[in-house]
Amino acid sequence: MKVLLGTTVLALAWLATGNAQNNPIQYFVVQRPTIIAFFPQVTDAGLEKDPDTNEALGDFQLYAIRAGPRLKKAGIDFEVVDAATFKTRAGKVVRTFSTGKVGIGYYFIVPGKQPRIEYRVMTDEDILKIAHEYFKIALE
Questions:
Q1: How many angstroms separate the first and last alpha carbons of the chain?
Q2: Quick check: 10 pLDDT over 90?
């Protein structure tokens, strides 16, 4: 699936609801089951070096859009961040997460439990399956 980067970034910006728009490191306050989908910031030069990146981001966007309504219906917050590092606070526990070399994946977190990190583009069904396993919540 080929998607122009501008379209991908605009759609992901629409999906993103991070808590700190102007800070260099986004900060998410986690009060209930939450998934933070992360992907790297990409430049035109980066796309020229690796044309598969555009396709991966297009797939990432597609599956995030498909999973979002079902996650919301189940009471799971779904955030999207385009950064190599972000912070979470769940209760009194503050964590800083760096995405590493892969740079794309999903950070599952709920207060009182260690986060689960999955590195790769996952289909909407994969996201929902892991959400069910990790959060122990029924998903329709």
A1: 26
A2: no
